[in-house]
Design goal:
Largest sheet of chain A: 7 strands, mixed
Catalytic activity (chains A, B): Endonucleolytic cleavage of RNA, removing extra 3' nucleotides from tRNA precursor, generating 3' termini of tRNAs. A 3'-hydroxy group is left at the tRNA terminus and a 5'-phosphoryl group is left at the trailer molecule
Largest interface: A-B, 37 and 37 residues
Order of helices and strands of chain A: EEEHEHEHEEEEEHHEEHEEEHHEHEE
GO molecular function (chains A, B): 3'-tRNA processing endoribonuclease activity; zinc ion binding
Cofactor (chains A, B): Zn(2+)
Family (chains A, B): Belongs to the RNase Z family.
Radius of gyration of chain A: 22 Å
Oligomer: homodimer
Pfam families (chains A, B): Anti-Pycsar_Apyc1
Helix content of chain A: 10-25%
Low-confidence stretches of chain A: none
Chain lengths: 303, 303
């Protein structure tokens, strides 16, 4: 099952040439989840060949503009392009008010249902679940209320050893129950022990998204042991005072967090516009946590 | 004196690959005026090498998102990049409310003065004047209140014939009065007839900007005889019914308007996303009004 994230924007507060504000597109089993939506996200989707209309769920971490100014444009374009299926938005409550005011003054009546779910910042909570994954909030420490998101794949059904089943002419009617782990007594007297005909499914993977936050141990439990940790790394550690002051993280701190929480892989992004080249941020992080990659726009990372 | 306009966006309602929503940057004597500000305008400014901080005046035609969704991001970036000088925004009144709500929820206190001037749509009005130009509104006919803008250069001072003045050793102290058209009696008894030492300045030019509108003769008087008429041309004329229904104009109609109002040059833009190539729109307009050009992003047009 596909579980991968494409970077649509990797800049912090202000865009720079070649780096747009934050947005990511998560593909889980060919269902698409948009995570944050900075200005120009719809143009980035076009640029990288994604159909915006495939997105059914949007997760907005907080109401600093570099994480949501692109949403009103995206929703408007979906409307103008004839969308009819619903979209569900998980975001701070005030976002609904902001969008409604803009639709009101453009006299736009969105022709598809937009469902809002207000995120809370008092404690981590499970906010979404479907057949493929569930999503929990991560309570980050930023200047305004801010939640990260933890995307956890569901445990899949057991995998059939099809060659063996076919060789022994086991009826296909048995397959669904075998996938669910059952042993079977067949009418012809044969006994099928599940372990002989199936193998365990892949371990469910976790993707944690920490958009904007101070280095703060309170959320480490939420992101413990994830497969890919996306963590902001706005500054080099020589600017740790500035990071503390603005409630951001340095590349070194992001790497320390990955190490402390047992992440398998670290993806860093939300780079300050002061960095023309990102190599120093990568090298700083790798000095602490080797399996680090830069979040580069247009790149897709398997989780 | 420089008087030119650079196209930052030429798409209608939804962006397409290579075309962004509407925005234009007018340069009049090295002062910069932003006209509409679709999503991604700040990225376009970066892309084409303009410093956003040079913009002191913004004119927003109406509150359809493809004409203003980029403004909140631009204002935020100016704030984050340390702007302190004021900016003045001419726009429908509700825009102030929309911006304030977003600043409130991001807990942003913009550190430079933002002055709003609410445009009215009952009658054309002069809304701005400085040493270089004045600006009047054009009352367009769109689905929601919408004003175009007419930028009229001020009459410049007379041009000195410097070689002659230097050859006759006329004191430079006389130059300012000569520029203003005065004849002079010099203390040494010489009489300077202004016409002998100066020539008339260039004729003041006019740029008319008609963003979104139905073909409607009521605004033709406002745009009479302009040097460059920018007029939306969303559709080919084969879609005139759709143009009427959505209160837009066809390329053929834009050309007819240029002809009827005696424009010297026509610039067409606001192209529907259905047109991959724009040549048919250009050809249709040129069949009626030869001196037509396409508004191409990144191109600068002398007025």
């Amino acid at each position: 099952m596909k579980f991968e994230v494409t970077i649509l924007g990797s800049s912090s507060a202000t865009p720079v040439y070649n780096r747009n504000p934050t947005a990511q597109l998560l593909n889980c089993n060919e269902k698409f989840y948009l995570i944050d939506c900075g200005e120009g996200t719809q143009q980035q989707l076009i640029r990288f060949g994604f159909k915006a209309n495939k997105i059914d769920f949007v997760f907005i971490s907080h109401l600093h503009g570099d994480h949501y100014f692109g949403l009103i444009g995206l929703l408007s374009s979906l409307h103008l392009n004839g969308r009819i299926k619903p979209i569900k938005i998980f975001a701070p409550a005030a976002l609904a008010e902001i969008l409604e005011l803009q639709f009101k003054h453009s006299e736009t009546v969105i022709r598809y249902p937009v469902e809002f779910v207000a995120t809370q910042t008092d404690a981590p909570a499970e906010i979404f679940e479907n057949a493929d994954l569930k999503v929990e909030t991560i309570i980050l420490n930023h200047r305004i209320p801010c939640t990260g998101f933890k995307f956890v794949q569901k445990k899949r059904l057991r995998k059939l050893i099809v060659e063996k089943l076919e060789a022994e002419e086991i009826p296909v009617d048995c397959y669904p129950l075998l996938k669910r782990g059952a042993d079977l007594d067949l009418p012809d007297g044969r006994v099928l022990l599940n372990a002989d005909y199936t193998t365990d499914s892949d371990r469910p993977k976790q993707y944690c998204y920490c958009s904007d936050t101070l280095f703060d141990e309170t959320y480490f439990e939420s992101i413990q042991g994830c497969d890919t940790l996306y963590h902001e790394a706005t500054f080099l550690h020589e600017m740790v005072d500035r990071a503390n002051q603005t409630h951001h993280t340095t590349a070194l701190q992001a790497a320390e967090i990955a190490k402390m929480t047992g992440a398998a892989k670290l993806l860093i992004g939300h780079f300050s516009s002061r960095y023309k080249t990102l190599q120093p941020l990568l090298e700083e992080a790798r000095s602490v946590f080797e399996n680090t990659e830069l979040a580069i726009e247009g790149n897709t990372y398997t989780i």
